[in-house]
Amino acid sequence: MKKFTFSLLLLFTNYLPLAAQTVAELQETAKTFMRQGDYTNAIVVLKRTYQMAPDNIQLAKDLALCYYFQKDYYTGLQIINPVLDNKNADDQCYQIAGNMYRQQDKLSDCEKLYKKALKRFADSGPLYNDLGEVQLANKNTDAIKTWEKGIEVDPTYSKNYYNAAKFYFYSLDKVWALIYGEIFINMETNTARTAEIKEILLNGYKKLFTDVDIEKANKDKTAFTVQYVQVMNKQASLATSGINTETLTMIRTRFIIDWFNSSNKPAFKLFDLHQQLLKEGMFDAYNQWIFTAADNLSAYENWIKTHPAETTQFLNFQKARTLKMTSDQYYHK
């Protein structure tokens, strides 16, 4: 009897890793279907797998996402909403549910959901970004405060910079659209959003230099902004030839030299990047990548052809690093 019990226990013990492995394999099969856009087959696999492991939150997220991509938001919410009360639920669970509410134009429900989620995940950049987008859709200008908070608490998440840069560009602010926009394109270097923000940067500098006295025109009296416009205003005479890649390269070069030669200037990783690019002879290529590409893509392609060494050096540098901002350098309080 003891021998039988031991054998049964051994069989059961050996079975557990197999069961765990089977769930993992089935989940990977479902993900393969999802990558192929075959959400119906992914659902077939995930529903059966979820029955085997009902506490597996990732399975619930994958299943809810499949219904989301099939635009079956009602069923998707039935899957993901119960998970939100699980102590192991993460901020992505709330994002998935929120996206389904947004697709149904249930913006009030969505806003309540995100605010509830932020009480639990107070440092989630993605949640702040999504909440800001919902607020803006509701014509609530508190959206910019939400994106600013996301930048402050989760400075390595890019989308809050993207939305804040656009908001400031279309408002009266002429400084933070430039700063946040350039941070964004150094985090997300090769997407449609990157091209969009490059255009905002080019036009943002044109807006900035429409004022003869940038200091006098500045309405934002935060310490960092005041210091920024003081140094930028010193370069204003260079704008008399118009704003283009060449003049911007000169303006921005002198700005960085003056910034680092001035006393009591706060540390800022974006400006550290500029200084490094200057020292290593890549600042011209960097400005071509931003401003010439935004102004005239064929001209930029021609510049690449005629400057292969500079282009290769810069692009290799860009691929090897990502700008990572830190919370101690959040200055727009």
Low-confidence stretches: 1-21
Instruction: Report the strand count.
Output: 0
Strand content bin: under 5%
Which class of secondary structure composition applies to the elements?
mainly alpha
Computed CA radius of gyration, to the nearest angstrom: 26 Å
pLDDT averaged residue by residue: 92
Q: Secondary-structure map with pairings?
A:
Elements: H1 2-35, H2 39-52, H3 57-69, H4 73-80, H5 91-103, H6 107-120, H7 125-137, H8 143-153, H9 159-169, H10 176-187, H11 192-208, H12 214-217, H13 223-233, H14 245-261, H15 269-279, H16 283-295, H17 297-306, H18 308-319
Describe the structure.
- The relative contact order is 0.06.
- It contains 18 helices and no strands.
- Helix 2 packs antiparallel against helix 3.
- The protein has a domain of 178 residues.
- It is mainly alpha-helical and 333 residues long.
Any descriptors?
333 residues, mainly alpha, elongated, disordered N terminus
Structure summarized in a few sentences:
Residues 1-19 form the signal peptide. This protein has 333 residues and is mainly alpha-helical.
